[in-house]
Design goal:
- It is a single chain.
- The protein has helices spanning about 1-15, 30-50, 50-55, 60-70, 75-85, 95-105, 110-130, 135-140, 140-154.
- Helix content is about 75%, strand content about 0%.
- The protein has 2 domains: about 1-105, no CATH class; about 110-154.
- It is built from 9 helices and no strands.
Length: about 150
C-alpha cells in the first residue's frame, strides 16, 4: 500500500503547477485548488477507505481545499508518504498540515513520532475525562492540550 501511495504522491507533483514538486501554492478558490484537493482526497480515501469518507465525506470541503492549496507538492508528497507508513486514525486538517510542514522544516522521523505520541496521549487522557474519541480526534492538538490541562487543574 505504501508504494501505491508514494506513486500517487509522485503523480501529484506531475499534475500540479510545477513538475519540480517545489511549487508552494495554488490560487485560493481556483479550479486548480479544488482539483488538487480532490486528487489528494482520492488518495486519502484509498488509504483509509470508508473510515475516511464516513468521517469527512466523499469530497473535500472548503477548509481542506484551502489548506491543501497552501502546501507545496513536496509537502503533500511527504504527508501522503508519512500517512501510508503510520498506523492510527485518519488525520484532521490540522494534523495533515502539521505533517506537511515537517517536510519543509526537515524534522526527523523521531521528532514526528514524539509529536504524534503526545497527540495520541492527549486523546487518551481526554477520553478518560469523558470526551468522546470522535470529539478528541476532531479537536486541534493545541485546543485538546488546553482542554486536558483545564481538567487536570480542576
Amino acid at each position: 500500500m505504501g508504494n501505491d501511495l508514494a506513486d500517487a504522491a509522485k503523480h501529484l507533483t506531475k499534475s500540479g503547477p510545477s513538475s519540480s514538486g517545489l511549487s508552494t501554492r495554488v490560487k485560493a478558490g481556483s479550479q486548480q485548488e479544488t482539483a488538487r484537493a480532490t486528487r489528494v482526497w482520492s488518495r486519502l480515501t484509498e488509504l483509509y477507505g470508508r473510515v475516511w469518507t464516513d468521517k469527512y465525506g466523499s469530497q473535500p470541503n472548503k477548509t481542506w481545499c484551502e489548506r491543501i492549496g497552501e502546501l507545496s507538492n513536496n509537502q503533500i508528497m511527504h504527508t501522503l508518504t508519512v500517512l501510508a507508513d503510520r498506523e492510527g486514525f485518519p488525520p484532521d486538517v490540522g494534523e495533515f498540515t502539521v505533517i506537511a510542514k515537517t517536510a519543509k522544516g526537515g524534522e526527523s522521523n523521531q521528532q514526528q513520532e514524539k509529536v504524534w505520541g503526545k497527540i495520541d496521549r492527549l486523546r487518551r487522557i481526554a477520553f478518560d475525562h469523558g470526551m468522546s474519541l470522535a470529539e478528541a480526534q476532531q479537536m486541534p492538538p493545541n485546543e485538546l492540550a488546553a482542554w486536558v490541562q483545564e481538567r487536570a487543574e480542576a
